[in-house]
Amino acid sequence: MDSLPPPEKGVKRIFLCRHGQTENNRLGKMQGRRVDPAINDKGVLEASCLAVALRSLETPVVASSELLRAKMTADTVASLHPGARRVVIPALDEIDFGATDGVSVGQARARLAATYAQWALGNADAKLAGGESLREVNSRALAALSELLAMCPQQGAVVAVTHSAYLRAVLALLFRVRYDKARSLAQENCCINVLEFRPMFIPPAGPATDEDAAAAAASVGDKANDISPGVGSRIMSDDDFERAMMDLGTVKSLAVNDVRHLESAQRIQQQQERENLAVS
Fold first, then answer.
1. Distance (Å, whole) CA 109 – CA 71
2. pLDDT level of residue 229 (50, 70, 90 thresholds)
3. Per-residue pLDDT tens for 9-44?
4. What is the dihedral sign for C-alpha 121, 122, 128, 130?
5. Which helix (H) or strand (E) holds 87?
6. What are phi and psi of 46, to 5 degrees?
7. Residue 42 in contact with residue 56, Cβ under 8 Å?
8. DSSP letters along 199-250, please?
9. Which of 32, 228, 253, 278 is 20 to 30 A from 186 (CA-CA)?
């Protein structure tokens, strides 16, 4: 990501990444908040490529959801940022798809179609097969973004590793796109999305501002577990959403589903497959 221009005064960036591949991903099985597999060998390789792609980024924090696949990926990224704090934020967890977890993606889509239709019609309180509603997902997404921005210094950046459906929900929310439209947006394993936030009012830069961000980063471990619905935070009303969106400021997308750094992982995997065939 060295090709990105430096952020302007008062601007903050969040590098939102997806975790590495799991066996459920490889097999085309639904994988929501209720299932917690590790990343597989390909996922480990992808995570290493992601870490290399982000190693030149100065960040005080590498965050992740509390799910193992995201934590393993973020740990790999953090290994090249020894000065950064590793933070787990449950509000970054994947969407809870309820009873569809573990079934094939095709079967899950059929079961969830009615709820997605309700979301498209504006019913944000419809739940996914006993899982979450869109209002619940958006509530914790806004909480997580606010938390990440509080840890980010002016003209700085933070990294967070999360999940594909959750990332689509975040992008739909921030850019006022219906979730049913955002569902077709590619979010490949270990992709990078770069979001730039410009507050409505830009406070004067200075040591105090950066110290505040550093203090927030240092203390977040004590409060991260109070973010997501079900572990402390409330579900937002429509008015709450609008106020929270204004607090985020204006948002600009600098990259969506950037996977150029994974080309080396693909080459390595192909070489390994050729070697395995030669041995067998």
1. 27
2. very low
3. 889 999 999 999 999 999 999 999 999 999 999 999
4. negative
5. strand 85-88
6. -65, -40
7. no
8. -SS-PPPSHHHHHHHHHHHHHHHHHGGGSSBTTTBPPPPHHHHHHHHHHH-E
9. 228
User: What are the structure tokens assigned to 189, written together?
Assistant: 């394993």
Contact 209, 201 (CB under 8 A): no
Q: How far apart are the C-alpha atoms of 132 and 130, rounded to whole Å?
A: 7
Classify burial at 201, counting beta carbons within 10 Å of its beta carbon; exposed 0-12, middle 13-18, buried 19 or more.
exposed
Distance CA 45, CA 177 (A): 33
> How many CA atoms within 13 Å lie on the side-chain side of 88?
11
Instruction: Give the whole-angstrom CA distance, residue 251 versus residue 17.
Output: 17
The type of residue at 260 is R
User: In angstroms, how far is CA 252 from the centroid of its own chain?
Assistant: 16
Cβ–Cβ < 8 Å for 63, 217 = no
The predicted-structure confidence for 48-59, as pLDDT tens digits, reads as follows 999 999 999 999
130 residue type, one letter: G
Q: Which residues does 215 contact at the CB level (< 8 Å), separation at least 6?
A: none
| Strand partners for 229 | 233
The span from the first CA to the last CA of the chain, in angstroms, equals 39
Q: Are 193 and 258 in contact (CB under 8 A)?
A: yes
β-sheet bridge partners, residue 85: 61
Look at residue 278 and give its three-state secondary structure.
helix
253: tokens are: 């997308």
The 10s digit of each residue's pLDDT in 92-111 is 999 999 999 999 999 999 99
